[in-house]
Amino acid sequence: xxxxxxxxxxxHSKLSEDLSDxxxxxxxxxxxxxxxxxxDVPVEMDGEALADSLLILVAGEIEVxxxxxxxxVFLHLDAPGDLARVMSxxxxxxxxxxxxxxxRPSTVLLLKRATLEATLPTLAGKVYAHPTLAYFVMRNLxxxxxxxxxxxSAEKEEMSNYLYSLHGRY
Length: 170
Hints:
Largest sheet: 6 strands, antiparallel
Shape: globular
CATH class: Mainly Beta
CATH architecture: Sandwich
């Protein structure tokens, strides 16, 4: 995948909202491009290669099934820019076991947490530190998850209205 295609994919994702062109270029230099074929199913996402990585769909269709603290979670990624593995990426004391099923040949970008954290200055100081990039990416992840939560809540409300014939719309 060309650098231009990676840049376009990142610009299409919620991850790069409010980032300057230079910051998107820096973010593009941090991601790993990975292609999945339908024959690759299922792909375990807990291996070293995917540990603590954020998955950004560029093209294709992927279903992610996971056990998060022993509760099943299911994500369907089919729109360019869709994100998965957010909880693994942000870390914490959450037990996650995940796998993906590739429905169509797919291309994803993987952003490792340690790679993004490397843009933060340390006590020793880094010449190439870019703390605002990490801040903006994490802020955009919070916005993305809030949007997902709002949409899920609205769908739950709609389903409840339908099941219980509330509000006279059904």
